[in-house]
């Protein structure tokens, strides 16, 4: 596919997961309901979690890897979508989030379940409740056309991944006795966050 030069120039440079994550972390957090394509992420220099995942997936695709995203499903909180990749048979993740604890994961996880579980203790709402409950199968964005450069709203991709099979993070009875998050960790994880964009339980 021939990309517009502003997008291609950026994708060319971001040829490793750490470079992609560094780029994501420099972007301003984007509010609003519309999900913009990677082209518009580059133009506007802003993204929220789903836009960040799509952008990271576009980078991986440009450099010959599958553009895979995974949905982390929560209760009493926002869901979170991450881009996932494999290195030496192990899974890692790329992510944009208002919460610092929900971003990058090194490729050290033997399964997607292990990767998703690595987010559990750090996935909480502003009341300190741990909220992560399920994770989806990876969705391969090669199934869809034009998502890298469209001017249209890409929320339909979110609807597609929401319909995919999701798996429990752990046994349901575990959730009855969860320890609230340390207030100091909660405060630290929101450093630099746009608090008006954070889910209010």
Describe this structure in words.
This protein is of the alpha+beta class and 201 residues long. It has one domain. It is 31% helix and 19% strand. The chain contains 7 helices and 9 strands, in the order ααβαβαββββαββαβα. The protein has helices at residues 5-13, 17-26, 38-44, 49-62, 112-117, 155-163, 183-189, and strands at residues 28-29, 46-47, 68-74, 80-87, 90-94, 105-109, 132-136, 139-140, 166-168. Strands 3, 4, 5, 6, 7, 8 and 9 form a 7-stranded antiparallel β-sheet that branches. A two-stranded parallel ribbon has the order 1-2. It is globular, with a radius of gyration of 16 Å. The termini are far apart.
Task: Please tally the β strands and state the result.
Answer: 9
Strand content: 15-25%
Question: Sheet with the most strands?
Answer: 7 strands, antiparallel
Structural class, please?
alpha+beta
The helix content is 25-40%
Number of helices: 7
Q: How many structural domains?
A: 1
The end-to-end distance, rounded to whole angstroms, is 42 Å
Radius of gyration: 16 Å
Poorly predicted segments? none
Q: What is the arithmetic mean of pLDDT?
A: 96
Order of helices and strands: HHEHEHEEEEHEEHEH
Q: Categorize the overall geometry.
A: globular
Topology:
Layout: H1 5-13, H2 17-26, E1 28-29, H3 38-44, E2 46-47, H4 49-62, E3 68-74, E4 80-87, E5 90-94, E6 105-109, H5 112-117, E7 132-136, E8 139-140, H6 155-163, E9 166-168, H7 183-189
């Amino acid at each position: 596919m021939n990309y517009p030069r502003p997008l291609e120039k950026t994708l060319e440079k971001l040829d490793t997961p750490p470079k992609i994550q560094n780029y994501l972390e420099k972007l301003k957090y984007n509010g609003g309901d519309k999900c913009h394509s990677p082209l518009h992420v580059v133009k506007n220099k802003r993204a929220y979690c789903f836009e960040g995942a799509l952008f990271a997936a576009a980078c991986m695709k440009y450099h010959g890897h599958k553009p895979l995203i995974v949905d982390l499903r929560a209760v009493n909180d926002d869901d979170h979508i991450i881009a996932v990749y494999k290195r030496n048979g192990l899974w890692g993740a790329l992510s944009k989030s208002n919460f610092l604890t929900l971003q990058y994961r090194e490729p050290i996880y033997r399964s997607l379940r292990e990767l998703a579980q690595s987010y559990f203790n750090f996935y909480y709402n502003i009341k300190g409740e741990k909220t992560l409950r399920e994770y989806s199968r990876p969705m391969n964005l090669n199934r869809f056309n034009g998502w890298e450069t469209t001017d249209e709203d890409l929320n339909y991709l979110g609807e597609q991944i929401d319909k995919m099979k999701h798996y429990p993070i752990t046994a349901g009875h575990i959730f009855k006795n969860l320890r609230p998050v340390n207030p100091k960790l909660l405060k630290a994880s929101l450093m630099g966050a746009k608090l008006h964009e954070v889910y209010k339980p």
